[in-house]
Amino acid sequence: MSKTILAVDVGSTKISVVIAEITREGVLEVTGHGLSKSQGVKKGIITNIELASRSIKKALADARRIAGNNVSVATVSISNAYARSINSTGIVNIPHKDISLKEINRVMETALYNANIPNEYEVIHVLPYNFKVDDQDFIEDPYGMNASRMEVDVNIILTQKSSMGNLTKAVRSAGLDIESIVLNSYASAIATMNEDERELGVSVIDMGGQTSNLIIHTGNSIRYNDFIPVGSNHITNDLSMALHTPLQVAESVKMRYGNLMEKSEGAIELPVIGDEENHNTISLEIVQSVISARVEELMVLLERSFTKSALREQVGSGIILTGGMTKLRGLRELAQVVFHGMPVRIGYPRTLEGLFDDLNDPAFATVVGLLLYRVGEHTQYEIDNARRLLHGKKEDQNPEDDLTNIRLREKGDSAQKDPDDLFSGKTIEAQKWDSKESTDEKNFSFDDLASPESNEESAMGRFGNWLKQLF
Q: Which CATH number belongs to the domain containing residue 124 in this structure?
């Protein structure tokens, strides 16, 4: 039977809602999606709960109508705007010498307990990036190993309680329950990274309408995240003010004539703000200089943040640019120059089955990443916002450890019987003597243990004789 899941990306410029089904074969298939203009959200922060809830409802209604499903439990993104991260370490002893999920959860909880978390912040992700087993460092996966002690280094991602509370209210006011809350740049990274980039280390930059988020993924986890309150809408605003033209016209000019690498000659006529009858003649060189100035400023800020992380040497596969701003021509080439020749590519979300064509765009990387997160594409181990340990392991129960499966040997069983036959799946209480057996067989007697014909020389016979003498 298939399972339906729902993802909601609450962005500064748009609200994206996607409904998908997990088929019996484990394939993720998109069945519906909705999009609405974001209201009540500025620079990633909820500024008006009622307007934000209304935008979510509109996108949700469209997605439900297409999918024909009223699923109401969602995985929701939260902005990097007021998120921060801290590092912590946890150490535990392994009493039984075998590392199970219980021990992994315990060491991560210990690291969380040791962290100095401010009162106004709330945990949304606990991500381990280095395990140490006894004296062995950089253990990729400690599960199943023999050890007497385990240590872990974690990156704890926090967000302000007020931001979390306002987002929760807006989503619930739209009629949805929240399954998980995921950092939006984390979701974008899940949707755009490949296995080689995970292994070698990569930086993912999500460039949206009002914000730009940078994360560095290395050591099987996110090690660094940062937020810059500048996005593609700032270019539109700059053009509107510099050219004295309406915002809608400025957006159209940006998308049509914006090119960071090639200079265009000529001029265009644009309407004046408040005077639709008159037009100004604007040189395309001015248009491109305004766009280039803002984009270069943003790239320099991102490069400084990247350098501040002190993880540059661990980013072996380069940089992934994703988000709606990547549609600007020449952005990748400019990023390669600013980031000193590091490999840069445009990150498209991973291809899914079903109604995916409209989502095959960098602007939808976050919402696709939320779907993948929901089906287990998170880090190898993680404690989420609900303090649950997320993992991809399946612990098989050892039947010898389950006392409810053990039965006593029945009378008449051969002493050479296969030990595996002791585990019949029945409880002790269910193993009773057959009602057709004789009364003598049902009644226990010390004499039976000490039968001189067969047991006198045996250990059981001697034991029976000893009991008779005792009583």
A: 3.30.1490.110
Q: Are 54 and 76 in contact (CB under 8 A)?
A: no
Give the whole-angstrom CA distance, residue 101 versus residue 393: 8
Give pLDDT, residue 393: 83
Contacts of 195 (CB under 8 A, 6+ apart): none
Closest CA to 198 of 127, 261, 149, 137: 127
What's phi and psi for 99, nearest 5 deg?
-90, 115
Number of domains composing the chain: 2
The answer, yes or no, to whether residue 430 has pLDDT greater than 60, is no
Q: How confident is the model at residue 311 (pLDDT cuts 50, 70, 90)?
A: very high
Do 422 and 406 form a contact (C-beta atoms < 8 A)?
yes
Q: What is the pTM of this model?
A: 0.82
Give CA–CA dist 183/161, Å, rounded. 14
> Half-sphere exposure (CA, 13 Å, Cβ side) for 252?
9
Q: Give the Å distances, CA to CA, from 99 to 49, 108, 138, 143, 400.
A: 45, 13, 16, 5, 18
The whole domain housing 462 covers 403-470
Q: pLDDT band at 435, cuts 50/70/90?
A: very low
- The answer to whether position 438 is within a domain reads yes
Q: pLDDT tens, 148-190?
A: 999 999 999 999 999 999 999 999 999 999 999 999 999 999 9
Contacts of 397 (CB under 8 A, 6+ apart): none
Q: Give the span between the Cα atoms of 33 and 355, in whole angstroms.
A: 8
- Structural tokens at position 213: 């988020």
CA-atom Rg of the chain in angstroms: 32
